[in-house]
Design goal:
By secondary structure, the protein is an alpha+beta fold. It has 6 helices and 11 strands. The chain has 2 domains: 111 residues, Ubiquitin-like (UB roll); 102 residues, no CATH class. Helix content is 25%, strand content 22%. Strands 2-1-5-3-4 form a 5-stranded mixed β-sheet, with helices on both faces. The chain has a 4-stranded antiparallel β-sheet with strand order 8-9-10-11. Strands 6-7 form a two-stranded antiparallel ribbon. Strand 10 and strand 11 form a beta hairpin. The mean pLDDT is 94.
């Protein structure tokens, strides 16, 4: 265990833990969009900025950095709120909002930080390219149905070749992970559709209560990963 300070308060943590994670555990609020504990952080949205001061050879050096992927180290001083931090956060929110102006989450952040609007040309995008859907699909679900295509202004998160992926099991993990709610899911008694990826798959109905509780392809994936027969997944969680 190591010790360092966050906004003047001494905290203990394991060396190398995410500063954002530690700050949250100790009640410090740092805004973020692309961070999720289930996957490796890489600072895509840049919103979780903090100031970190390190002392080396008797000299202090302060830098602005993303807290999600910055490791806890002995003796560092972390500041989560300052004029410099908030100025940069406001710019980041303004740019993200110009890219995805219909996002309610971004609109809420803009209101909270008094972000000006209209300085940048708005686009009709909904996705902020945080990559959480790609990471969760690949690293948590394990099906790798999504990826990034294109470069620069043409970069997109989507299935390969822009067509419905046969790897997608319609589990909905990408829907839950998306921080700006741009991946929608629709469900009927017989079908679940991940709207953004245009992927529709049949639902498995519980043999006990008749409730459609999961896509059949998702259950097939679970059965394969667990080594159990598909018949083990014939009941919904409540009836099981």
């Amino acid at each position: 265990m190591i010790e360092f300070t966050i906004d003047g308060k001494t905290v203990q943590a394991e060396r190398g833990e995410s500063l954002l994670k530690i700050a949250g555990e100790h009640g410090f609020r740092i805004p973020h969009l692309c961070y999720h504990e289930a996957v490796q952080a890489y600072g895509a949205c840049r919103l979780c900025l903090v100031e970190v001061t390190q002392t080396s050879h008797g000299r202090k050096r302060t830098k602005l950095t993303t807290s999600c992927n910055y490791p806890a180290m002995e003796g560092i001083e972390v500041v989560t709120q300052s004029e410099r931090i908030n100025r940069n956060r406001r710019m980041i929110i303004e740019l993200l909002l110009a890219r995805a102006p219909k996002s309610k989450r971004l609109q809420e952040l803009a209101a909270e930080y008094n972000v000006p609007t209209g300085r940048f040309k708005e686009s009709d995008h909904e996705c902020i390219l945080c990559g959480l859907c790609v990471q969760v699909c690949r690293d948590v679900v394990g099906v790798d149905a999504l990826g990034f295509t294109g470069r620069g202004v043409n970069k997109e998160a989507r299935p390969p070749f822009g067509e419905p992926s046969k790897e997608c099991i319609a589990c909905g993990a990408c829907v839950e992970a998306c921080p700006v709610d741009c991946i929608k899911m629709e469900e009927t008694h017989t079908l679940r559709t991940i709207v953004r990826w245009e992927r529709s798959l049949p639902m498995r109905v519980c043999e006990e209560c008749g409730y459609p509780f999961a896509p059949t392809f998702q259950l097939m994936h679970f059965a394969k990963k667990s080594g159990k027969p598909l018949s083990e997944f014939r009941l919904c969680p409540d009836c099981r």
